[in-house]
């Protein structure tokens, strides 16, 4: 894994967006995808970012994905395999970049056909503990015509990233605004944040 971590950090340092196209192996990616599909069937995914009713409408205009938080207490082998990789990555980050990461949170995300997430920053105004964002895509055979690209806004340009199976994207949470473009097919991912105190 070290080599993959290194390539993510090198691309992050070079371009502000760390990337690897083989972060999750096909087997783990498939198992995580199956968990999401089961949660979807069982109606356990929750519309993302719901507050009260007024907020609900407002939210729907900003994002239309459904989420489910991963948790070691679920005692799911594959969620735990995923967390093991994240624990390794945190150690790597803290050892090589002195990043001082003390925690993380990850959720599954399901963007049904016609879903999107408008331009935003991942750090909340009243809480700065999200240091880095990371997204891992689980979409086999994703085609350009499926849409659902991640668009990252740099100072003078924008960068379009297709949500391909096994790919991960890593960037600083308070720095880069980004958006999920309209998805024409169900789009699945694990998204999360590395936190500092
Ligand atoms: O799925 C993606 O490509 C980005 C998701 C995102 O921006 C978020 O959940 O904050
Ligand atoms: Fe985001």
Provide structural commentary:
The protein has 197 residues and is an alpha+beta fold. The protein has a single domain, classed as Jelly Rolls (Sandwich). The chain is built from 4 helices and 11 strands; from the N terminus they run H-E-H-E-H-E-H-E-E-E-E-E-E-E-E. The strands form 2 sheets. The protein has a 7-stranded antiparallel beta sheet. The relative contact order is 0.22. Residues 109, 117, 122, 135, 150, 163, 178, 180, 189, 191 line the site of 2-oxoglutaric acid.
Give the SSE order as H and E letters. HEHEHEHEEEEEEEE
Number of domains: 1
Level-2 CATH architecture: Sandwich
Biggest sheet details: 7 strands, antiparallel
Fold-level CATH name: Jelly Rolls
Mean pLDDT: 94
Portion of residues in helices? Answer: 25-40%
Instruction: Please state the structural category.
Output: alpha+beta
Beta fraction of the residues?
25-35%
Low-confidence stretches: none
Tally of strands? 11
User: How many H/I helical runs?
Assistant: 4
Distance between the termini: 26 Å
CATH superfamily: q2cbj1_9rhob like domain
Neighbour order of strands in the largest sheet: 1-9-6-11-4-3-2
Q: What's the CATH class label? A: Mainly Beta
Rg is: 16 Å
Q: How would the global form be characterised? A: globular
| Ligand inventory | 2-oxoglutaric acid, fe (ii) ion
Organism: Portibacter lacus
Cofactor: L-ascorbate
Pfam families: 2OG-FeII_Oxy_3
Domain Fe2OG dioxygenase: 102-196
